């Protein structure tokens, strides 16, 4: 018979003596939190100053570009930290607020749920309990448990999907399928465009889809036109290599300037035609499309990731 070990659960102070140590560890291991909340983060900063206060961690949602605040607290939640997250959120106009503590009181769960019910749909509050776990003599691991999440993160009901309308419902369904095949634990959105981080700030990978075509690409959106042009030139120097990896002629790799850009943003992209309207596809056809979109993006990421990191 296979021996089954018992999982030991311990206070987080068993691993980190101070909140600052935990915050530093979290920045270095942010992927664990990203997978838990379904948001990809970039531009991560520690001890970010907001007026006369300092937020533990501030980041940006790679997909929506909204600001994200992460506030860490050892022991049980208290009013002081509730006040902090509200102060930081208002000071930064944050869209996602993550409060991490060892234990949430019922009053503070209720407060976060109330905020999720009574703030805009683009704003979400997470309450997350943290603990250390280990099996036998194994190293400690950090475990997160979501006890409060924004309403819009919950499983979307059939009636809620119907309220979106057929076009938005299709987008939501396609992104759900694509992200599952790509292995990204991110929240699908009812829009024609979806981006995720490349590891280079302000330069995400990008999917777009229309009725009779889709595209994959790299969106270069640095703050200055000079930076964007430099990264474009760096990628262009390796365009032959990228085309071979993608198995497409060079002329099919397009450079575009996104409509309405005020900072000289650039887009490297490849278009793929659809033989049937996206909005008339069967279940089986959507499955095949999602597989293709994920597969082509995996090839692009593999072909460009190292180049982007050299260009940063």
Task: Give a description of the structure.
By secondary structure, the protein is an alpha+beta fold. The protein has two domains: 7-153, Trna Endonuclease, Chain: A, domain 1; 158-311, 2-Layer Sandwich (Yope Regulator, Chain: A), CATH 3.30.1460. 38% of the residues lie in helices and 29% in strands. It has helices at 19-28, 30-37, 79-92, 106-118, 158-164, 166-182, 225-236, 239-246, 283-311, and strands at 7-10, 41-50, 53-61, 67-76, 96-103, 124-135, 141-148, 193-196, 205-209, 213-220, 253-256, 266-273. The strands form two sheets. Strands 1, 2, 3, 4, 5, 6 and 7 form a seven-stranded mixed sheet that branches. It has a five-stranded antiparallel sheet with strand order 8-9-10-12-11. Helix 1 (19-28) crosses helix 2 and helix 8 (239-246) runs antiparallel to helix 9. The N and C termini lie far apart (54 Å). The model has no long low-confidence stretch (mean pLDDT 87).
